[in-house]
Write a structure and sequence with these properties.
Structural class: mainly alpha
Helix content: 55-70%
Radius of gyration: 17 Å
Largest sheet: 2 strands, antiparallel
Number of strands: 2
Number of helices: 6
Shape: globular
Strand content: 5-15%
Strand order of the largest sheet: 1-2
């Protein structure tokens, strides 16, 4: 019988739990109801205003069905607007509202500040190596994901 504590999948799941907990604790301390996926959506829309929901899903490696709920919640919170596309009146583009941009500006430094805590047992050099290796492994396995990362090609 294999020891689960030596399996990458188990350790990755644990790191995800740790990351989510640290993120949620910081948001709660700020008095905010914001998930890490909502943050990823806001951050991506800030850099790529006017993308559609499917493109957003690909850019943050989230499945299309679930991203719909994420966007619905951001719209309900007044942080994102759905705008009719000037190119295709049937299509909806997404954009940050002024409130969404202000929240992102407030939250972004806090999100950056908590990153070292996610890998708190590692030195700076070890964190850098971990990030290099994790990025390489994620890229190599991207096509095996149910929600692969899709880079936007026109920007």
């Amino acid at each position: 019988m294999s020891d689960i504590y030596t399996m990458p999948g188990h350790l990755i799941r644990r790191l995800n739990q740790i990351s989510a907990s640290i993120f949620q604790d910081r948001m709660a301390a700020m008095g905010l109801d914001l998930t890490s996926v909502q943050y990823a959506a806001l951050s991506t829309l800030a850099k790529h205003p006017g993308i559609d929901q499917a493109t957003l899903a690909g850019m943050i490696a989230y499945d299309r069905v679930t991203i719909g709920g994420v966007v619905d919640r951001l719209v309900a919170k007044g942080l994102v607007a759905r705008i009719t596309s000037a190119r295709d009146r049937r299509a909806r583009e997404l954009a940050l509202t002024d409130s969404g941009a202000a929240l992102l500006e407030r939250v972004h430094p806090e999100v950056l500040a908590i990153q070292p805590a996610i890998l708190s047992g590692l030195s700076d050099d070890e964190r850098a190596l971990f990030m290099t290796l994790a990025a390489r492994a994620a890229e190599a396995g991207n096509d095996r994901s149910r929600a692969p990362l899709r880079h936007r090609t026109d920007n």
